[in-house]
Amino acid sequence: MDLGLRGKVFLVTGGTRGIGLATTRTLLEEGADVLVAARTAHSIERARAELAEHPRADFVQVDLRAPEGGRRAVTAAVERFGPLDGVVNNASGFSIDHGHPDRAAWLELFELKVLGYEAVIQAALEHLRDGGSIVSISGIASMRYWPLSPHVSAVNSAVEALTRHYAAALVGRRIRVNTVVPGTTATDRYEGRVERARAQGGVDAETARKLIDSTVPLGRPVDPTEIAATIVYLSSRLSASTTGATVVVDGGAVVVPDSALPSAGSR
Ligand SMILES: NC(=O)c1ccc[n+]([C@@H]2O[C@H](COP(=O)([O-])OP(=O)(O)OC[C@H]3O[C@@H](n4cnc5c(N)ncnc54)[C@H](OP(=O)(O)O)[C@@H]3O)[C@@H](O)[C@H]2O)c1
Questions:
Q1: How much is the pTM?
Q2: Ligand 1, residues 39, 51, 216: which to mutate, most atoms within 8 A of Cβ?
Q3: Mean pLDDT, the chain, whole residue set
Q4: Can you tell me the distance from the alpha carbon of 66 to that of 39, in angstroms, rounded to the nearest whole number?
Q5: According to the model, what pLDDT value does residue 265 have?
């Protein structure tokens, strides 16, 4: 299937690791040019090395929590590759604590995933071709209880609301706006959960991994390439009639209650 992405120009935020890196790689393999925006020089250098065989990838170091961050990322993409065909709002990061999130934790996430995504969209609208695409990444905490994470639930819900707003606002320009909603996905964040479960439960890493995997109805974390494939599909002409959608890729976690999981009997 030809996705029609050859020569198209994309901005991917948080494209140096996990889901963002997998998305960047898939877009490059489909022939697109990709400008990746991320916060640290370290993650940029690592991603640059991993994508060394792709001359059409470039990077900008920018803090997307900063008021001018979104504009800086968009400007870097346009200066490097020209007008945009697609934007992927994916950057995320929050401190994990063991208590109710304090005000600083709320602000950290809100500034990045709500104000930051909004700033990227606003700056991109001046340079996004009519018929282009915006995909934002939320997470299943918007749809089900996630202990100690009301800020993650609220912020991911806001990401989905932003998508619906811009999907409606931009139909006149045929710019499609969609959300992809990952469940537990095998990125650095998953490895962090394994480490915490290991330390808290006093179990080995293999047992901790099995415990976490048993909370995913399909029995394993989602692979970042599976989320990337959904993002790239929604960024392509194959989804030309899809806008305002919220597409869940979670191994069944939203529709299967914990009490119906195969592991529930042994808890
Ligand atoms: N992984 C999961 O299980 C899961 C589940 C639900 C939803 N999601 C969502 O999926 C998306 C990707 O998750 P992931 O696990 O792949 O992420 P990740 O591995 O934590 O990577 C986050 C990316 O965002 C960048 N970033 C963080 N803070 C930034 C800032 N202030 N300015 C610019 N860039 C920043 C990071 O760059 P640096 O490394 O340079 O900081 C990195 O490239 C996120 O929106 C996340 O909320 C993930």
A1: 0.97
A2: 39
A3: 96
A4: 11
A5: 57
